[in-house]
Amino acid sequence: MTDPDSPAPRSVGARRGRPPSNALSRERILDAALTLLEREGPEALTLRRLGADLGSNHTAVLRYFSGKDNILLGLAERLIAEAVDGFEPGPTWRATLTELARRVRRACLAHPALAVLAASRVSRRDAEFRGADLVIGALLEAGFGARESARYYRALVDVTLAMSSFEAASAVLDGPEREGDRMAWQREYLMASPQRFPQLASVAPYLAQADEDDQFEFVMGLLLDAVEARSGRSA
């Protein structure tokens, strides 16, 4: 008779010090994929590397995900979920859209390597549907019909994700490259020849003053101003 207090026998395929492949789950795989991305960057995410980090053969991952692309869609869902988690609409439709855009940007900058890979994807899962529902609800509140709301939804989401992933792409650059790009506005642009580039030289000091926060708020403000002008209502 087996002693009920004795440890379970080690499976043949298990490795010492590593969990057996049957300890895998979708959430654990996504956790490991995100850790790998944040530690080593977008190029590091392969099924073999992921399997090695999980202590399993990479084929075990395929019991939970159909392939790397399916893992990316799961991570894209996590990114959106982080942005919309706990969100409640604001007092006006414009306040709702502004705060949602800011939340998406914060999530992308919190996970820049993931944003580079996933911001352009359509996750087609509940968190994305929740975000869409919130944005479209705000647009319907603004007075738009169904067709207009659909068009403005796509425009607002695309611009928000484009700006956020562009900024994330800069964040994953090596330190010297990132710093060189950041300082270019305060060095090379200010030193551009007024004789060869007179229009650029006339505004170069103002280019140096703008930062990423300013640009994001400015562009979203422009876009929402355009939406409001077409809504026939004030925010």
The number of distinct helices, counting runs of at least 4 residues, comes to 11
Helix content: 55-70%
β-strand amount: under 5%
Instruction: State Rg.
Output: 23 Å
Coarse shape: flat
What does the largest sheet look like? none
Count of beta strands: 0
What is the H-and-E element order? HHHHHHHHHHH
Low-confidence parts: 1-17
Q: What structural class is derived from the secondary structure elements?
A: mainly alpha
User: What is the average per-residue confidence, as pLDDT, rounded to a whole number?
Assistant: 87
Question: Alpha-carbon distance between the termini?
Answer: 75 Å
Which properties best describe this structure?
single chain, 235 residues, mainly alpha, 65% helix
Topology of this structure?
Blueprint: H1 26-40, H2 47-54, H3 58-61, H4 68-84, H5 93-110, H6 112-118, H7 126-141, H8 146-171, H9 175-184, H10 198-209, H11 212-231
Helix pairs in contact: 1-2, 4-5, 4-6, 4-7, 5-6, 5-7, 5-8, 5-11, 6-8, 7-8, 8-11
